[in-house]
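Human:
Class, as today's exercise, you are to examine the entry below, and be ready to discuss the fold:
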Amino acid sequence: MRIVLDTNIYRRDFALNSNDFKVFIDYLRKTNATLSVPQIVIEELCFLYDMEVDKLKSHLEVAIKNYNQISIDESLCLIKNETQHRITYKEFLFKKLEIHYIDEPNYKNDYLKELVKRGIQKIKPFSLKGEEFRDALLWLTILDYIKQDQYDDNVFISANVKDFADEQRKDLHHILRKELSENNLKLTFFTSLQEFNKTFSLKIDFITTDWINENLDWKRLNEGACKEGNIHCTYFFELYNRRSTLKENLEFYELENAYLDESICEFYVYEIPNGNYAVQIFLSGIIKTKFFIKDTSDSDYISETISTEFGTRTKIEIKDKSIVKYTDEYFEEESGLNFY
């Protein structure tokens, strides 16, 4: 899923401390969804935030001055802090989100011709007065972006129902919806984070690291992690070359056992048909491997057991808050050993 938030959503809570934002950010982390922050939104946010900070700072300076004029306790004399570095809102935003996938689609000079046409013909999101230039620029950026790289699900969240929504103020305006249809594009519209969270985020709110740890069949996972082929053989040859004391040509190896840490490194959630959810789980543990070489003195083999950390990934399916299926398949491309 790719999600675009309009400026007005961030502006309601610049610090992103509201419960709605906390639930939303948790959803982004759990699902590996992509948050798209268009250039026009970033630029507008930085400008509006700086204006708000400057206004509050001015009020604060007046308050400090008035306080110091009437203060009779010198130990409580307030001073302005002029030395502290002021980060940009963009720096704060990206640090606060701390998610894996976030991108910044830029607006293009090529949009000018289309913007002029829309402004003259009063095509949405322009109003009958021919205003809302930035809204039209944002809309063209979103259209262009999802044309180039079509996701299965695209979401746009904006509180600007006047310019983007229909008469019921719930769905996109029919002109914008028609434009999507003509370009064979998919986009779901929400007017608030709260509405998005009700539809998506809260349904998987219970899926946490603690919940997964408590509900997993660890015995089954341990047995599966030790099966031949779940980790590519090249990892074991590399482990032997780096860690073995035998220093001879390897004949073959056998996996003795594997012990998972019984704790989740990472996990990602995504919806599947029938309203169920699949969870990709990243696991780690210790694996013991016995390596064999030919004994030059007779026909027997000399063996050496090497233990090392390993990481792997598997999948579960959840229905009605219960694990209903394990995929007994570990992902070779995501599984490996720690050579050191």
Notes: Residues 2-203 form one domain. The chain has twelve helices and eleven strands. The two ends are 37 Å apart (CA to CA). The chain has two domains: 2-203, 206-337.
